[in-house]
Amino acid sequence: MHLYRTHTCSQLSKKDAGSTVKLSGWMFRVRDHGGILFIDLRDHYGITQVVIHPSRAFFDALSKAKLETVITVTGEVTLREASQINPDIPTGEVELVANECLIEASAEQTPIYLPGNEDGAEDVRLKYRFLDLRRERIHNNIVFRSKIISFLRKAMEAHGFNEFQTPILTCSSPEGARDYLVPSRVHHGKFYALPQAPQLFKQLLMVSGFDRYFQIAPCFRDEDARADRSPGEFYQLDMEMSFVTQDDIFAVVEDVISKTFAQFSKKAVDATPWIRIPYRESMLKYGSDKPDLRIPIEMFDCSEVFGKSGFNAFAAAVKAGSVVRAIPVKNIKDKTRSFFDKLGEHAKSLGAKGLAYLVWDGDTIKGPIQKFLTPEELATLAKMGNVVDGDVLFFICEEADKAAKIAGDIRAKLGRDLELIDKNVFRFCWIVDFPMFEKDPETGAIGFSHNPFSMPQGGMDALLNKNPLDIHAFQYDVVCNGIELSSGAIRNHLPEIMYKAFEIAGYGPEVVEQKFGCLLNAFKFGAPPHGGIAPGVDRMVMLLAGEDNIREVIAFPMNQKAQDLMMNAPSDVTEKQLRELHIKIRGKDVITADTAAVQA
């Protein structure tokens, strides 16, 4: 017989009755029924009930043992009485009557109660993550994650992709989020950086002649945490393809992700091809470039109506350059005045001057601004919003960007508060036609709106002959239920177009050559048209697991301050280590010679 086990704690069934078996695991629950101990023994696979009679020599030791003590039990499998069968576990029809037992490792009192359903304080959970991971929900999430990643790999390989690994120690990126820097011991005063993404390397792989690349890639960014973003590091399904159009990339992503979501969830998944929404349309209708399409509310612009109206507060603002966004909501005329007042206060907390509204109630139209509008204007608004009896139109009047942000937040809040969100579907969309350039609101200078390496739609001709603010990029985001899974683009692979695009953004050729010399140099030796995308693995698992926080699907996450409480990282290092790296730690109050001269 094996030293530790003949079966796992999920394998035994009534067909094993009468057999002598050996199990090993953790003491998950202990119950004393009339002097007989009943132990729920747990391992990675499941739970088996173990019965310890008081006549056994090891009874006292086990009765005093703390939960999570590791034991090995040998005994006979017996059938439970009909009234004692547990249909919720695979081993619920049997129990193991112990004849021998060995305590492999004693446990102290755990700071987390593992059988409970309450999560408890996050700092305690993260400090004792190895215990938290024993909890059924979290343990299952990590196994679930492994299965999803395995499925993704197979799906990518089925599309002809090869998995290649790219460097972890690389150069600092001049764009994007803050880098994590790694000092070089050999090259004094110089630093590596952990990659924010394998972006440059995967493009270089295409230049190298590899046609389809993918990687479950670790990425490192020194940025703040959010519910859907882990600080420090995260993983993405990174991919790049040569000789492809935007449509080719969409087809691969839609097939891989839709199959993944269908495989690992019982929720309905949008049929492919997914809806494509131009960026500006998305900002108008949803107030966001990552819209939650489960909310059945589409906003619209009604600036022209109010600009000519007798509602002077809006009319004057429109003439000064503001816009009016309407938010139509179906069948809520019976909401109390406090509902409308609280929503107005919420709008003010977001920076709005207020929240106007109109209520269609039978043959009458109610609301604070109704008296300022003519019957014709009210009819026009009703037609624009497809309004019927019982519907309400809310209105935000602000500068365009601010109006979109505030109205989008209110739309999302209405979706939650009115329970309009269908919890049983995954709604996908592509956001396309992102602007290539934008104007800095403070300086008025033209700069890149997002990704400087995207191919402009229209190529060189667009850069030479169009207003930069009217140029769209071959850039796209894939969004699911209001969460951005990834950004991607068809890359700018031609040096002359790269020089011109950066020139429009205010960068001379010397800057391009200095910051992006490797990529630019590679493109000079013949680069294929190529593009890619990198859906976030952590976010996909979070959605599929039904979790609201990304840390629940990561084995060893950091807290919101980018600290690993379990490993005590970041931590101090020794003076010897610093000397080897030729690094000296400067305190906040240290005055350098230059500073002293200035102060003098």
Task: Give an account of the 3D structure.
This protein has 600 residues and is of the alpha+beta class. The protein has 19 helices and 24 strands. α4 (136-158) crosses α17 (537-545), α7 (279-286) packs across α12 (400-417) and α15 (509-515) crosses α16. It is globular and about 90 Å long. Residues 589-600 have low confidence and may be disordered.
Instruction: Quote the average pLDDT.
Output: 94
Number of strands: 24
Query: In order across it, which strands form the biggest sheet?
Result: 6-9-10-24-23-22-19-12
Characterize the overall form: globular
The major pleated sheet works out as: 8 strands, mixed
Oligomer: single chain
Beta-strand proportion: 15-25%
Q: How helix-rich are the residues, as a percent range?
A: 25-40%
**Helical stretch tally:** 19
What is the alpha-carbon Rg in Å? 31 Å
Termini separation: 83 Å
What class, by secondary structure content? alpha+beta
Which regions contain 5 or more consecutive residues with pLDDT less than 50?
A: 589-600
